Amino acid sequence: MIPSRIARHVGRANTIGFIGLGAMGRNMAKNLLVKSFANKEGVYEPGKVKPAFVIYDAYQPMVDAFLNEHVRAYAGRDIIPASSPAGVSRLAATVFTMLPSSPQVEEVYLGENGLMEGIQDLDATKQAESLFVDCTTLDQGVAKEVAKRMSALGAGMIDAPVSGGTVGADKGTLSFMCGGPEEAFVRAKVYLEMMGSRSIHCGDSGNGLAAKICNNLLLGISMAGTAEAMLLGSSLGIAPDLLASILNTSTGKCWSSELNNPAPGATPKLSPPADRDYSGGFLSKLMAKDLNLAVSASKSSSTPLPLGGMAATLYNTLSTHDEFGSKDFSVVYEYLRVAREGGLKKE
Questions:
Q1: What is the pLDDT of residue 5?
Q2: Active-site residue, 212 included
């Protein structure tokens, strides 16, 4: 529970909430904290309402770690742990969420002690000042339904999935693809710019997710194709750095070949995940999730995805192996290399 003495002195209109302090969320929240009220000069007057930063995560150690890192650094500013999503939306007018996928978004927004419950009993003015920004990559239909339910209470909401990975989250260089009302996007943009370098309004609710799913569909296909080309080149006797230099000055050039080449030693000046045992980066199991979302969307829209379907099958299979699923998705190269050697067992 939030101590009543703290709640009374928190200015809800200027308070930010953040839910989901995982690999992406904790760094996004850090940048939002540092670049919002935490870095302002001056001392707040005793007894006067003031802005705060409210956090929540279902896994308490993530909350504890965030508090341990930031509370001492910003003494005199309220960084408040909430006991539920509803507690966040009661204290903060602007709430960001970064969650694993559709089920968690439904639970956090619409479930018991969820964000919607937190604003149901507020007066109309406070409901109207509420803004929710969901940065999760999830099913577009779920996102639209959640936005519809929240907007029925007078709150603004946009979907704002991100591109840029954990490095972008840490450095504050993410790109946000946003769907929802223009007015809500304009309100959110000032905060998105604290966490990223670009935010794009893609249209109606759910359109940010549509853009993100299309981007990652292409990314998964291009990474699989780059891995195949690099592995074939290795099998035919071409050194990886030589082949990469040819691809990256030819028509085969793409982000996967140039900046995240999946073959170890292909781009030694860049030190991509392939040169670090595929650690860090965008996990294979998350790529599998996004490709599955694309395939699902293709079925509901009667859009053929022959390559996308094959890429989804490849990453779904790859992710059943513990040694690949939690590595950067460029590990598809290693998966194919091991398969070439006959070293994979079917599960």
A1: 45
A2: yes
